[in-house]
Specification:
Elements lengths: L2 H7 L1 H4 L7 H10 L8 E5 L6 E5 L12 E3 L1 E5 L4 H6 L2 H10 L33 H11 L3 H10 L4 H8 L7 H38 L5 E8 L5 E10 L1 H4 L2 E2 L5 E10 L1 E10 L10 E2 L9 H7 L1 H4 L4 H14 L27 E5 L2 H6 L5 E3 L8 E3 L15 E2 L6 H4 L1 H12 L8 E3 L4 H13 L6 E5 L9 E3 L2 H6 L6 E5 L10 E15 L9 E8 L3 E8 L8 H4 L15 H11 L6 H21 L15 E13 L3 E9 L4 H6 L3 H9 L6 H5 L2 E3 L1
Parallel strand pairs: 7-10, 11-12, 11-13, 13-14, 14-22
Antiparallel strand pairs: 1-2, 3-9, 4-6, 5-6, 8-9, 15-18, 16-17, 16-18, 19-20, 19-21, 19-22, 20-24, 22-23
Helix pairs in contact: 6-7, 6-8, 7-8, 8-9, 11-17, 13-17
GO molecular function, one term: ligase activity
GO cellular component, one term: cytoplasm
Protein name: Tubulin--tyrosine ligase-like protein 12
Length: 692
């Protein structure tokens, strides 16, 4: 590669590198030259109790005087990192050394004495049922009575081999029988125990690496093209080699350390290090661990909890406790909703058909009303239904209806929904405690540490702000990944529901279709403003996990997640009427479904009461009256916890309702008619909804 070509291809990455270092970097990349060892050396325990990186070059390093190429020891993704470690023992060994992970001494469990005063052997687990055939086999092979064989099996939890081996430990056992038994099974049992111990040691080491990796990992973004031809961004996590990983932290660092993706003989990721201050011989190289977007001192301290092992914990707990007190001082909202549609414009004989313009495939496919026709012009349409965000509200004319509200992202973006609920109501039972990891990092870390201090289990679900279909969602117990995952894009941390109500032992959630519509209070005088209706479609969908629920194995998607229609999973089809019938039988000791549904409706109503009341950008209340009217269809996901307390999980923009139309052929017709009664039979359409 020519130098000019290198500059052109890498111009954006080079923008943050001093120009005097561009050519030295190019030469090292072309030669694959890792010469940091000529100028730098590792120290252990000086001055830190871990590895640190120091200048060994005589005369030290000068500001912008050199640039070093650093290799990456491991590139991974959180969801695949454990599998990679299981398949790569050499990598495990290397990371164990880099992270200074000590191996625990293997402690042999002492056998409990089984003898009592009269010399008889007693059972430590007399209630354990043991198969009669196994008792006879142990008695025969161990040359003991069936009574003694049963006790041995009970004491060993029903393990045949372990029971036989336990009998060899007793001195009153026949010596010849002991020798035969030892020869027959002893060697294999020892080998099995050794293999199990080795496997446990391996898994324990990997778990330690998975915990410690967040102190060493860094991340970068790259673009990929999916099967549909769309370009999307993905994130990779990487750990630098021994040299790069030994750099210490300072908020006034003397070096810049950054990833560099070299496009030469293929695409290879490295890191580069260059000094931004003069560093004397034996001086320690430092970089700033804290991302540049974290500005507030409290947030910076919160981020450093990953590395500081408890420093500043009391201060962060105080931040959380203050925020918690403030969230309780909230004024209730009087919902601004009307039950009946005011002055509905119904179709009259001789009226033209209602013209619908849509970019939404399921709407175009399922529109079957005689009074509605599809049109190709936005300007000529009475009703517009878009599947993508609409921005040109000022271009809409009098009489038009559109399927979006201005700033409805106040409910459809996860971080905005949490902020809206918190601002309107404080902490409420129907909304999980949620933190925006961009703006509330200190409060979140304080809450996590408060839980630790009060022996409350920390279990959090980390989600991107605005991705659907369960993408990039993980469940975490440790603080470090929750803090560090924010580095790959905006995230929320939400308390995981540890006590979900189950259906046949499995976790489930419910998808509701909710219609919000605005109408002029006075059609002849739009300046009088709007009135609103919110209504829930009576038919809902049940989404079931495929495996029984348990608070363990959090990377098992089919145990902890319910969205199975994206990916190679079995999808349970269950009609809502059958679900209600089965649920009331299974949970006869809990509320009747009608009462649960009333609670769900009230939670949904509360969300939209806040949304249409709060001014933009916190809510969606318009600052002025527009000539058009708006409506929107949302997919709302609800879970039940404890004694059937509903929890609104999220509100989804423009849900795909293809399946709804298959279950109920009148689904779209009912929505269109409620939005504009000229489309069909309003009384019939309203019967499909609960008007809140």
């Amino acid at each position: 590669m020519e130098y000019k070509q290198f500059l052109q291809i890498h111009q954006y990455q080079l923008a943050n590198v001093p120009e005097s270092l561009w050519e030295p970097l190019f030469k090292k990349l072309v030669q694959d030259l890792f010469d940091a060892g000529d100028s730098l050396e590792l120290h252990y325990g000086d001055p830190l109790d871990v590895y640190s990186l120091h200048v060994k070059k005589a005369g030290g390093l000068k500001k912008h005087g050199d640039i070093f190429l650093i290799d990456h020891a491991w590139t991974t993704k959180p969801e695949t990192s454990k599998a990679q470690l299981l398949d790569n023992p050499q990598l495990v060994e290397r990371l164990t050394s880099m992270m200074n992970i000590s191996e625990d001494e293997e402690v042999e469990e002492e056998e409990e004495e089984e003898q009592v005063a009269d010399g008889e052997v007693v059972s430590k687990n007399p209630d354990l049922e043991v198969d009669e055939t196994m008792i006879q086999l142990v008695a025969s092979e161990g040359n003991v009575s069936e009574h003694r064989a049963k006790i041995a099996l009970q004491n060993e939890g029903g393990d045949l081999i372990a029971a036989l081996m336990s009998l060899t430990l007793h001195p009153d056992h026949d010596a010849k029988g002991l020798k035969n038994l030892e020869d027959a099974i002893g060697g294999q049992v020892r080998r099995d125990k050794e293999a199990k111990a080795a496997e446990k040691k391996k898994l324990d080491t990997i778990d330690k690496i998975m915990t410690e990796m967040w102190k060493f990992s860094q991340t970068y973004e790259y673009a990929v093209v999916d099967p549909s031809g769309q370009t999307k961004k993905e994130s990779a996590w990487y750990i630098m080699d021994e040299v790069g990983s030994a750099m210490g932290h300072s908020e006034t660092p003397n070096c810049i350390c950054a990833p560099f993706i070299y496009v030469g003989r293929g695409t290879v990721s490295y890191s580069i290090i260059f000094p931004i201050q003069d560093i004397p011989k034996d001086g320690m190289l430092t970089r700033n661990f804290i991302p540049a977007d974290i500005k507030e001192p409290e947030d910076r301290k919160a981020y450093m909890q990953v590395f500081n092992d408890g420093k500043d914990a009391a201060e962060l707990i105080a931040v959380y406790e203050t925020a918690k007190l403030e969230s309780n001082e909230i004024t209730p909202i009087n919902p601004p909703f009307v039950k009946a549609i005011t002055n509905p414009r119904v179709a009259k004989k001789g009226d033209r058909k209602l013209r619908l313009y849509t970019t939404t495939e399921w709407v175009a496919t399922n529109c079957k009303l005689d009074n509605v026709e599809l049109c190709d012009s936005e300007d000529q349409a009475d009703m517009l239904w878009f599947s993508q965000d609409f921005k040109d509200f000022d271009k809409l004319s009098k009489g038009q209806k559109i399927n979006q509200f201005e700033n409805e992202s106040c409910v459809t973006f996860k971080q905005n929904l949490a902020a809206l609920v918190k601002a309107a109501y404080g902490q409420v039972a129907w909304s999980s405690t949620t933190y925006n990891l961009t703006t509330e990092l200190a409060s979140f870390v304080g809450h996590y540490l408060w839980n630790q201090e009060h022996n409350h289990r920390n279990l959090w679900i980390c989600k991107p702000w605005n991705l659907a279909r369960g993408l990039q969602i993980t469940i975490q117990e440790e603080l470090a990944p929750l803090v560090r995952l924010r580095d790959t894009g905006p995230k929320i941390a939400q308390e995981y529901i540890q006590t979900p109500v189950l259906y046949e032992g499995r976790k489930f959630d419910l998808r509701y279709i909710v219609l919000l519509k605005s109408s002029f209070k006075d059609e002849n005088d739009p300046s009088k403003g709007y009135e609103y209706q919110v209504m829930v479609y009576k038919m809902f969908w049940i989404r079931l996990a495929n495996q029984p629920f348990a608070l363990e194995d959090y990377d098992n998607y089919e145990k902890h997640f319910t969205v199975m229609n994206y990916g190679n999973y079995n999808l349970t089809q269950l009609l809502y009427t059958q679900f209600i019938e089965n649920f009331e039988k299974e949970h006869a000791d809990k509320k009747k479904w009608a009462d649960i549904q009333a609670d769900i409706n009230e939670a949904i109503k509360s969300i939209f009461a806040a949304a249409v009341t709060k001014p933009q950008p916190e809510g969606m209340a318009p600052s002025k009256t527009h000539p058009y009217e708006a409506f929107s269809v949302y997919g709302i996901d609800v879970m039940l916890k404890d004694e059937c307390q509903p929890v609104v999980v999220e509100v989804n923009f423009s849900p795909d309702c293809t399946r709804a139309c298959k279950y109920d052929p009148e689904f779209l017709n009912n929505i269109l008619t409620v939005v504009d009664p000229r489309a069909g039979n309003l009384e019939k359409a309203l019967g499909a909804f609960n008007v809140l």
